[in-house]
Amino acid sequence: MKGAKSRSESKKADSKLSVNKKGGASTKPAARKGKAAKDPNKPKRPPSAFFVFMEDFRKQFNKEHPDNKSVSAVGKAAGAKWKSLTDAEKAPYAAKAEKRKADYEKNMKAYNKKQAEGANAAEDEVESEKSMSEVNDEDEGDEEGSDEEDDDE
């Protein structure tokens, strides 16, 4: 095909378009806006039975292999051992996981209740702050007037 651009020529042209100068439009997709910040007081989700097993397995594995610092080696060994366990051997870990899940649900109910109460209190605070600012404005006006009286004397 005569007159057609080669692939390398079109890539060069595309790279020129993708140069991002300050204030210029970006060719990359924009980051998500409005993502809510995490609340540090929110309860953490409970671990699954496997992660409860991992807690015990890590301790045991580190005693047997004190020189091993690789996280991936511990994970691979734990995964292999978990697969080899029978359902009866996994049962205690599943029971611990269920207990932690029940505790988590209880904590979440308390957290949600506290959040609901906090939202109502926040609305009240906004109203009270507004009225307080109006009162403060009036007080400041009085002070300025009293200064003028002192100047006249």
Automatic annotation (TrEMBL):
Name used for this protein in its record: HMG box domain-containing protein
Alphabetized InterPro entries for the sequence: HMG_box_dom, HMG_box_dom_sf, HMGB_plant
Segments for region (Disordered): 1-51, 63-153
DNA-binding region: 43-112
UniProt xrefs under PROSITE patterns: HMG_BOX_2
Biased composition (Acidic residues): 135-153
Organism lineage string: Eukaryota, Viridiplantae, Streptophyta, Embryophyta, Tracheophyta
HMG box domain: residues covered: 43-112
